[in-house]
UniProtKB/TrEMBL annotation:
Listed GO MF terms: hydrolase activity
InterPro entries given in the database record: BLH_phosphatase-like, Prot-tyrosine_phosphatase-like
One Pfam match: BLH_phosphatase
Organism: Sphingopyxis indica
The name this protein goes by in its record: TIGR01244 family protein
Length: 144
């Protein structure tokens, strides 16, 4: 069952996807799937290699930027920026609930200088509360 939640016209998030969801992502027009879940976090869930194989079979690009308990790093923000810059179409990012994928996007957009209230509103419209992340977003926005 797909639960793709668009934050922008070109970036959506989702809770853990199934192998069947990859075909639905292709049918919905996504060009790239980004996995923000570390392998082994839930052994019962499809692992990165499984999703990568399903993406390849559907002609979708696949990338992994695992976000674990250590939180977010500038390297992860850089990786997302690069992937989004190189994407040939809409992007679907997923993790366990979609929260880490939303947070990574929000931090990257804050660092890029996007309007912070607009970022928070886009996330809230899809069920993600960024209020606890706002101080970090403010700090990143101030480092531009």
């Amino acid at each position: 069952m797909t639960d793709f939640r668009p934050l922008t016209a070109g970036y959506s998030v989702s809770p853990q996807i199934s192998l069947e969801d990859v075909a639905a992502a292709k049918a919905a027009g996504y060009a790239l799937v980004i996995n923000n879940r570390p392998d082994g976090e839930d052994p019962a869930a499809p692992q990165g290699a499984d999703i990568a194989h399903a993406c390849a079979a559907e002609g979708l690009a696949y990338a992994a930027i695992p976000v674990g308990h250590a939180g977010f790093s500038h390297a992860q923000l850089d990786a997302l920026d690069t992937l989004l810059g190189d994407a040939t179409g809409p992007v679907l990012a997923y993790c366990r609930s979609g929260t880490r994928s939303t947070h990574l996007w929000a931090l990257a957009r804050a660092r890029a200088g996007d309007d912070l209230d607009a970022i928070c509103n886009a996330a809230a419209a899809r069920g993600y509360d960024l209020s606890a992340l706002r101080p970090m977003m403010d700090a990143l926005a101030g480092t531009r």
